[in-house]
């Protein structure tokens, strides 16, 4: 097996794909609608980046950053933009396409080994008699489906995943192993919850009591609209009074927390470890970098972009790019950081100036 | 079902409660001890915020921020403070109370649909013969209870949750699905672990060895005192030599990490994604905002408050409010940020001044 | 049980170890190769820090920070460095060693109560017929092992843990309860995944489509080399085209996310809640503090150290210590923070200076 023995130096192994049937460069060109340059009979058995590809690999040049790697690459075939069709470089068999990444994505599917899927309900799964399962549903080992749950056609509930009572899942929902859907949660079609991800927990709301605090009962819903994806161990709480809603097509990476009453628009991207506090409003098409935090009751306008680790403590206007803590327009952030760096050399003479030493 | 079809514009659906029996405004006023203004026969079927409430909803006005929404709200009944009793606005049926949020909490319970709870031990649960289960314990499907575990009366162990050998749980402890209690952990009465939460892992401690590093065996305990709540996927490590202890009544949100040997006082609130490094001391009543990080061996004094994303690299005095990185008193933080913003316009002339250009 | 009743003041209980057989100070000195000072017949029943130790406890003095605690400690026996052999203080029985922490680690094992381990495959575990299990493998209750999985000798798969199809695990791999290994993942010998940890998820990669976005099929591998440890609820994604590899001996704490195509070197330490974005390169021996974020496609050189919450937005040279956001050399960071603090008092006079008021 590949993990290197403890005593040797680091060698980062590679493996361009999962070893499916080989395919010729000419067939690839035909499939992606590209123009073939060079030897169309070259056989491709996998995909790899330029600097690690061998003669049996397809690679790609999608960014000037990798032009140097292209010059030296041992790749058998390379997908390139028209700008690089005549670029000097070792790979002589090239397929020219407008968008190499898009072409690559179509090809990746060909080299992608899918997880085997069993049919039907595993003998160890536990399904409440009142649950309603659509056609073609798969329940893997130890999956649990509670009272009155509705699973749409084609749902696939992974090993150890739990769907709480009264939850309604659309068609082709995929729960990976040990994901948890709390009771009374609503998931649209093709929603994906990765391993350990959770939706529908009662949010973090308490009121003071003479003897401590009391939990606020949560009656708001938790809705993940169509095509929402929730990364591994990410958590979306249900609403307290209002609802928590993640808009259709929004993709959320791992270890993200979305608090109660938050509304997230459509087609957003949240990188890993993002946190959105209670009752925040995130518009359509918003992109949040890794570890971004959005404060409670704030609004992030549509298509706004927030750099990694940004700490949002006020509303962010639509379409703007903000960063840093406290988050502000990225250009302001850069100017402030630059001014601070320049201040370091000035601070002592400035103190003298203000004291009048230099007067 | 509610998740909108992919092609339409975003429509944030709503649902004010779970559809329990309707109740009149007069009955609500009586229940909360409020003064009824308007038509006491109005029927309430759910609860919703002012801007989304309809004629069948109870709503509430608890903050001047929402006064404008109140003016236009279609809510059938609104809980208001005495200050808003005569406030102009559409809702004519009002219930006047000192604390609308407190009144609301009592009412939420009425509209709250509880998760169904089965009695006893599910056929698929696995319980060690040496485990001792109190009266009224529920073990859901695939729950696992290890050797010598003690479960107090009324404990509810969710589907797939695991209680490791030798752990002792008090009364009415609730483990949500797939939560994990490592061996030899102690949980007080009414402790809650949400889905995927964990307590008692051996902490992150290693010592160098000629051939790498060796793990430090952890013999300290992990104790969650009475009424502690741990959010989804949060993790509390056991101590190495000392113990890790979370004080009674402390509430911790999701995706939080508490490292080994940490002592957390009573009645603290930690928002999601907080991290507390090893051997830190957190006093009673401390409030940590989302994504706050507290460095190892530091002390945060009682009732201190830390703003979201604060990075604590030194001790924080009791009762103070700090923020930012590095964390400092919040007012200093604001002054520093303001000074930096003003510096941006000054930096060039200041450089000229120091160089003597303007002399 | 120890959790204090709700009404009393906070009392942090303690328990120095798990109550194994007592041992004399003389026997401890012999075991650690130390020089005994004082009464060798003192019996030790547990281990505790200086300020909480009693007469039955062994304690240790490893840092000048704790010299004051040493003076007052009630510990029966203390491990000290030669520098403290003659230090004034209550503990009169001392064992002098060069490295008290190292000595302690060896002793901790003696007081460490191990989790009981069952033999063989639990009746409720589900194992695919095509899976190959080595000698001495333990599968706990409800563990799931997929098609064609290979488990090396001595693997221990905890309750509810899931090993996806085609994954290959080396010898003595330990999966704690509810850990998830996605299909086609490779784990070296002695790899540890704590509860809820995950390896091999397809990373967060999408391409735009006319009707939204499409997931990029991931064909890269996810490899955790020998002796890698992954903390509770941490997540490592598989590569898209390239591989994700965690180098041998690297230890990762809880709630960490490693994105697709990342390469982490050997013998690194990542504290909890670290996030490493896609295609980053982390050299050997790198230490990342808690909540550090490393941006995509960046390089952190070998043996670099990053302070807690550092936000890395550019390459970090080998061997350097950086901190803050944006991350920069720690000394520069300190100078910038100091200059900013001093600026606060200067900003108003400086504005006057620049305006010419003081001219």
What does this structure look like?
Three copies of one chain form a homotrimer. The first copy, chain A, is flat, with a radius of gyration of 26 Å. Chain A has two domains: 89 residues, Udp-n-acetylmuramoylalanyl-d-glutamate--2,6- Diaminopimelate Ligase, Chain: A, domain 1, CATH 3.40.1390; 205 residues, UDP N-Acetylglucosamine Acyltransferase, domain 1, CATH 2.160.10. The relative contact order of chain A is 0.05. The N terminus of chain A is likely disordered. Chain A has 359 residues and is α/β, with parallel strands linked by helices. In chain A, strand 38 and strand 39 form a beta hairpin. The first copy, chain A, has four helices and 39 strands. The interface between A and B is large, with 85 and 79 residues.
State the share of residues found in helices of chain A, binned by percent: 10-25%
Number of helices in the DSSP assignment of chain A: 4
Looking at the overall shape, the CATH architecture of the largest domain in chain A is: 3 Solenoid
Total number of beta strands of chain A: 39
Number of domains of chain A: 2
Which fold name fills CATH's third level, the topology of the largest domain in chain A? Answer: UDP N-Acetylglucosamine Acyltransferase, domain 1
Distance between the termini of chain A: 74 Å
In summary, what is this structure?
By secondary structure, chain A is an alpha/beta fold. Chain A contains four helices and 39 strands.
What labels would you give this structure?
homotrimer; 359 residues; alpha/beta; Udp-n-acetylmuramoylalanyl-d-glutamate--2,6- Diaminopimelate Ligase, Chain: A, domain 1; UDP N-Acetylglucosamine Acyltransferase, domain 1; eleven-stranded mixed beta sheet; ten-stranded parallel beta sheet; disordered N terminus
């Amino acid at each position: 097996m590949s993990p290197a023995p403890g005593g040797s130096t680091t060698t980062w192994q590679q493996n361009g794909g999962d070893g499916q049937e080989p395919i010729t460069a000419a067939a690839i060109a035909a499939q992606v609608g590209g123009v073939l340059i060079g030897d169309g009979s070259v056989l491709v058995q996998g995909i790899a980046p330029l600097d690690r590809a061998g003669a049996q690999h397809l690679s790609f040049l999608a960014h000037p950053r990798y032009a140097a790697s292209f010059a030296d690459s041992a790749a058998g075939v390379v997908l390139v933009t028209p700008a690089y069709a005549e670029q000097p470089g070792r790979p002589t068999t090239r397929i020219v396409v407008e968008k190499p990444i898009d072409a690559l994505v179509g090809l990746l599917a060909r080299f992608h080994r899918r997880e085997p899927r069993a049919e039907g309900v595993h003998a160890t799964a536990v399904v409440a008699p009142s649950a309603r399962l659509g056609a073609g549903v798969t329940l893997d080992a130890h999956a649990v489906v509670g009272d009155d749950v509705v699973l749409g056609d084609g749902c696939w509930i992974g090993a150890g995943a739990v769907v709480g009572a009264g939850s309604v899942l659309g068609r082709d929902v995929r729960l990976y192993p040990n994901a948890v859907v709390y009771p009374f949660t609503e998931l649209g079609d093709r929603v994906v919850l990765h391993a350990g991800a959770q939706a529908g927990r009662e949010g973090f709301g308490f009121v003071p009591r003479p003897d401590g605090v009391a939990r606020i009962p949560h009656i708001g819903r938790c809705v993940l609209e169509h095509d929402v994806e929730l990364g591994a161990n990410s958590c979306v709480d249900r609403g307290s009074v209002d609802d928590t809603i993640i808009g259709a097509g929004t993709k959320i990476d791992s270890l993200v927390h979305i608090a109660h009453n938050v509304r997230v628009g459509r087609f957003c991207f949240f990188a890993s470890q993002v946190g959105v506090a209670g009752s925040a409003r995130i518009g359509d098409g918003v992109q949040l970098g890794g570890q971004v935090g959005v404060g409670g009751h704030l609004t992030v306008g549509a298509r706004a972009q927030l750099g990694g680790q940004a700490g949002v403590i006020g509303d962010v206007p639509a379409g703007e790019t903000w960063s840093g803590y406290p988050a502000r327009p990225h250009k302001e952030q850069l100017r402030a950081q630059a001014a601070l760096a320049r201040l370091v050399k000035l601070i002592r003479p400035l103190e003298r100036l203000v004291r009048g030493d230099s007067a």
